[in-house]
Write a structure and sequence with these properties.
It comes from Suillus discolor. With about 240 residues, the protein is α/β, with parallel strands linked by helices. It has seven helices and ten strands. The strands form two sheets. The chain has an eight-stranded mixed β-sheet, with helices on both faces. A two-stranded antiparallel ribbon has the order 1-8.
Length: about 240
């Protein structure tokens, strides 16, 4: 088996601060998966696939992030591959069992969803990007390995091994916390070593003073955390802009 670089979600994936705001997107069925859809101010052929953490794309914080990406000129699509049964529904020991049982249904449902997305939004001229938070990271790595997207981004990833980086074939941004039990420093450096050896196109953001989950559930009342969260999102947009011109 390929050595693990980013492990399964842990205790700090289950905590955080709920933000405030009014989402502007809507939920529609795409390929059998409820999907949060946030539209940009003007018509575009640029799409971000938003592969959420264990809180799902329908969690308020994630809706607001998707709306931000949309405001920057992208159609944003967030599949709820938990089918309404995300981590807020689970407490205590049940949470780990839920994570273990939720992966296969999500993985199995994803190809039909992706096919439905490309049927609706275009296969030839549309430029797709993908961002994955924690649980969503391996979906992004697979999309970046088979040419399905023009660029990918990860924020505090989970469920990654060396093979994901050995197979990487597209541009990848990694938005990382200085302190991350799931993707620690040694793993981050090993991932970089692999990408350097393969001459991959990549970029790291590494933020001090924050932990795993900062890009979604940080405390916005703390300046360091707020800036890191907002700069992570800005950096992801800038990265995608580079490859969708």
């Amino acid at each position: 088996m390929s050595p693990t670089l980013a492990s399964a979600p842990g205790s700090c994936c289950f905590t955080g601060v709920k933000h405030t705001g009014t989402p502007v997107g809507r939920v529609e069925d795409l390929g059998g998966i409820p999907t949060y859809i946030s539209d940009p101010p003007a018509a575009t052929q640029k799409v971000i696939l938003f592969l959420a953490d264990v809180w799902s794309p329908l969690y308020l914080n994630n809706k607001l992030i998707q709306d931000y990406f949309a405001s920057c000129g992208y159609i944003v699509l967030g599949p709820d591959y938990f089918f309404g049964d995300s981590v807020p529904n689970h407490d205590g020991p049940d949470r780990q069992a839920w994570i273990d049982s939720s992966r296969k249904p999500a993985i199995d449902a994803f190809p039909a969803w992706l096919d439905a997305v490309k049927e609706k939004y275009g296969r030839e001229n549309t430029k797709y990007c993908a961002v994955g938070y924690c649980f969503g990271a391996p979906f992004v790595m697979d999309l970046c390995s088979d040419g399905s997207v023009v660029a990918g981004a990860l924020a505090h990833p989970a469920f990654l091994d060396e093979d994901h980086f050995e197979k990487l074939d597209g541009p990848l941004l990694l938005s990382c916390a200085e302190e991350d039990h799931t993707f620690p420093l040694a793993s981050r450096r090993r991932a970089e070593d692999i990408m350097v050896a393969r001459k991959s196109t990549y970029h790291f953001q590494v933020f001090s003073g924050v932990k795993h989950g900062f890009a979604v559930r940080c405390d916005l009342a703390i300046d360091t955390q707020r800036w890191a969260k907002e700069e992570s999102a800005r950096g992801i947009v800038s990265w995608f802009d580079r490859f969708t011109v």
